[in-house]
UniProtKB/TrEMBL annotation:
Signal peptide stretch: none
Localization terms from the record: Cell inner membrane
TM segment ranges: 34-54, 66-85, 97-121, 133-155, 167-184, 190-211, 218-244, 264-286, 313-334, 389-408, 435-455, 461-482, 494-519, 531-561, 573-597, 617-636, 643-665, 677-706
GO cellular component assignments: plasma membrane
Membrane topology, from the record: Multi-pass membrane protein
NCBIfam families with a match to the protein in the record: TRAP_fused
Domain of life: Bacteria
GO MF assignments: transmembrane transporter activity
Role noted for this protein: Part of the tripartite ATP-independent periplasmic (TRAP) transport system.
Main location: membrane
Domain TRAP C4-dicarboxylate transport system permease DctM subunit: 207-634
Organism the protein comes from: Billgrantia endophytica
Recorded coiled-coil stretches: none
The protein's name: C4-dicarboxylate ABC transporter permease
């Protein structure tokens, strides 16, 4: 197998959901037979509906978000259920105990469907639905959902059909939206207020339970456990001491509040229903058109022959694909399946190969203009213009990848590694002739900075990905377009689920006011030391983000930590970038480092040791946010001279830090004392002042002179 065909195999995994539990984006079993065709059609319709509503015929905001969540739940349950089927021939067999669950569940969901249709009919004819009708609807829906949830944990289908419990969950997802949109005309007025009644509570509770169940299936238990802690806190608050105490809320008010734009229908779902699904579909088009393959091939052609070439390719390709992908672990799976084996081939230890890929893939989430959808959530929460956020992210992202590049290069020099041979690499001249395949990215960035809306820019970039494919052997015809739409839905479902689940946490924070309490605590700490307050904020952001995808991690951390940072006098842009960085870096922070674990699976090495190695390679990123505070010029806030000076000195500090970590400085190995001095030099350049920068440069110069003298002495002895 030649290298030129390998990227295509790796790119076939681009855009997976990134949570490793259920790779629903690329499970071909889902797309076989009548069931597969039905799921395929549902995915296509789900994505097409969003693109149509975003670009042609807008839908009222709350209605659109409710439909978005319900559609994501229904399609997500269909896909995950289809993936669990036993494809071996056999008859449907339901044991006696299961019948005791199946019969009442089917009867209850059937009655709920009848009540919903009848209530809708009454509403359409101008008659308010009878009270008994909506009460029966809510109880039957809640009963059917509860039975189906428990049954789905106990039994699995042994046939070629989706298990009956999963079918009920799909119907329940649709009924929740149907009730809120078609039957109840006072949801906005009643939800989250004392006017919310038992019926509203039951419907909202069913919606919350469905969201948490799908999140459990596609993202594992980490986010569910965190959400569970917040839900318990909402009711245990009156019994807690001091900072955590609150007055408590009724079930009706609490659960209906969660299903408003202060919770599930708030900023996280606003972003997942617009920017995330748009750019995930864009990534699907890049894959279907094989333009994503070109990015990786171009990186190999440009850097493959350099020292440690595959590692440097991983840095470039992971940054580019991770920007669009939206999940750190998903990006590891996408590019790491190619780069990790090749890094091992040229001499990198498996742990180093996995760590480099994990650190680079995580860094893709901070690369503008998309930033793994983080830029859009930040704009939604802060009100800061999107273009301002994208511009501010340029220098920090550059410093992060400069750090990883330095780490990679110094390790290659220290261990005497070589690059790949010319025969193993694509021909650079051919790659340059196909530079037009970068057109979708160029159009995306160009239209954004020309003033087009993000939706319009993303749509034009998506169309251009299809158009440029017409000049390649991988022409996108009608079938390929439908495949891309279907893949877009399958890639987006995990992020839709985690964004909705993060909305539950945000709703709890908003209702209980715990975010404001954390803010007052940070304010108290800041009276003693701003540095201590920032360190505490860093720890909380990483802790809240552990085990969660970027979008959910940032949304939660922004609700809890960012307001406190703003209260101690930090500008909103700096505060939110500070929180965002550490939410992203939680993916490579042990003990729960999803990106590191995903890389370890590919590298076939110890997960925890790989996570520690990825932490080492991403170490500079843990320092960069503190630079925001001391040197706002890093976020383009200041004169051009200030920005230039900070960039140059920060770049030097990054190199000194990489040299201290890798034990190699300039042209020779650094001993333990020299490494300590280099670390001190790097840390002294964080503050960004003239004096501290000069101290750092002076220490670096001292180590250089010491090293030069040692090398001369060695050469003299050997001579």
């Amino acid at each position: 197998m030649t290298h030129e065909t390998q990227p295509n195999e790796a790119a076939a995994k681009v855009g997976t959901d990134g949570v490793a539990d259920i790779p629903i984006a690329h499970n071909e079993r889902v797309l076989s037979g009548l069931l597969g065709q039905t799921v395929f059609a549902a995915c296509v319709l789900f994505t097409a509906m969003h693109l149509y509503a975003l670009n042609v015929s807008p839908i009222e905001t709350w209605t659109f978000r409710i439909i978005h969540v319900a559609g994501g739940l229904a399609v997500g349950f269909a896909i995950t259920a289809a993936m669990t089927l036993d494809r071996s021939p056999g008859e449907v067999r339901i044991n006696r105990v299961e019948w005791f669950a199946l019969i009442p569940a089917v009867a209850a969901i059937g009655y709920a469907v009848f009540c919903t249709l009848y209530a809708w009919y009454m509403r359409e004819t101008g008659t308010p639905p009878a009270n008994w009708l909506v009460v029966h609807l809510s109880w039957s829906l809640a009963g059917a959902t509860a039975i189906a949830l428990v049954s789905s944990w106990i039994w699995r289908s042994s046939s070629r059909s989706i298990h009956w419990a999963d079918a009920i969950l799909i119907i329940a997802s649709i009924l929740v939206a149907a009730y809120l949109v078609l039957v109840l005309n006072r949801w906005r007025m009643a939800a989250g207020t004392p006017f919310a009644g038992q019926t509203e509570f039951m419907i909202a509770a069913v919606g919350v339970a469905l969201i948490m169940e799908l999140t459990r299936r596609v993202a594992g238990l980490a986010l569910i456990l965190i959400t569970g802690v917040f839900l318990i806190y909402a009711f245990a608050g009156p019994y807690l001491p001091g900072l955590l105490e609150h007055r408590g809320y009724s079930f009706s008010r609490f659960f209906t509040y969660l299903y408003t734009d202060n919770g599930i229908l708030g900023p996280t779902t606003a972003v997942s229903s617009t920017y995330i699904i748009l750019f995930i579909t864009f990534a699907a088009f890049l894959q279907a058109s094989r333009v994503g393959d070109y990015f990786i091939n171009f990186a190999f052609a440009a850097a493959g022959r350099a020292r440690g070439g595959p590692a440097k390719v991983a840095v470039f390709a992971s940054g580019l694909m991770g920007m669009i992908n939206g999940t750190s672990a998903g990006n590891v799976v996408a590019t790491g399946s190619l780069t990790i084996p090749l890094m091992k081939k040229v001499g990198y230890h498996p742990r180093s190969a996995g760590g480099i890929e994990a650190a680079a893939s995580t860094g893709g989430q901070i690369v503008p203009p998309i930033m793994g959808a983080g830029a859009f959530i930040m704009a939604e929460i802060t009100g800061i213009p999107y273009t301002e956020i994208a511009i501010a992210a340029l220098i920090p992202a550059g410093l992060y990848f400069l750090s990883i590049y330095m780490m990679v290069d110094l390790e290659a020099r220290r261990d005497g590694m070589l690059g790949m041979s010319k025969d193993e690499l694509p021909v650079f001249r051919k790659m340059v002739k196909q530079a037009y395949l970068f057109l979708p990215i160029v159009i995306l960035i160009g239209t954004l900075f020309m003033g087009y809306s993000v939706i319009r820019a993303g749509t034009l970039a998506m169309i251009s990905a299809a158009v440029v494919s017409w000049f390649t052997p991988h022409w996108m015809g009608p079938r390929a377009l439908l495949n891309a739409l279907s893949l877009g839905a399958r890639m987006a479902i995990p992020l839709i689920a985690v964004c909705a689940c993060a909305g539950i946490i945000v709703g709890v924070i908003s209702l209980t006011g715990v975010g404001a309490r954390f803010a007052s605590m940070l304010l108290g700490i800041a009276d003693t030391s701003h540095l201590m307050a920032l360190f505490f904020a860093m720890c909380i952001s990483i802790l809240l983000g552990m085990g969660m995808p970027t979008t959910a991690a940032y949304a939660v951390a922004a609700s809890v930590v960012a307001p406190g940072l703003q209260q101690i006098g930090i500008p909103p842009l700096v505060a939110h970038f500070f929180v965002f960085y550490y939410a992203v870096l939680s993916a490579i922070t042990p003990p729960v480092a999803l990106a590191g674990y995903a890389a370890a699976a590919i590298a076939n090495t110890d997960p925890l040791k790989t996570a520690l190695t990825s932490f080492k390679f991403g170490l500079a990123a843990f320092i960069v946010p503190f630079m925001f505070f001391y040197s706002p010029a890093l976020l383009m806030e200041g004169t051009w001279m200030q920005i230039l000076r900070v960039v140059v000195t920060a770049g030097m500090g990054i190199y000194l830090l990489a040299a201290a970590v890798q034990g190699w400085f300039l042209n020779g190995a650094a001993n333990l004392v020299q490494r300590v001095l280099l670390l001190a030099a790097a840390l002294s350049m964080i503050a960004g002042g003239w004096m501290t920068d000069l101290v750092g440069l002076g220490i670096g110069g001292l180590v250089f002179l010491w090293q030069s003298a040692s090398l001369k002495a060695k050469s003299g002895v050997s001579g």
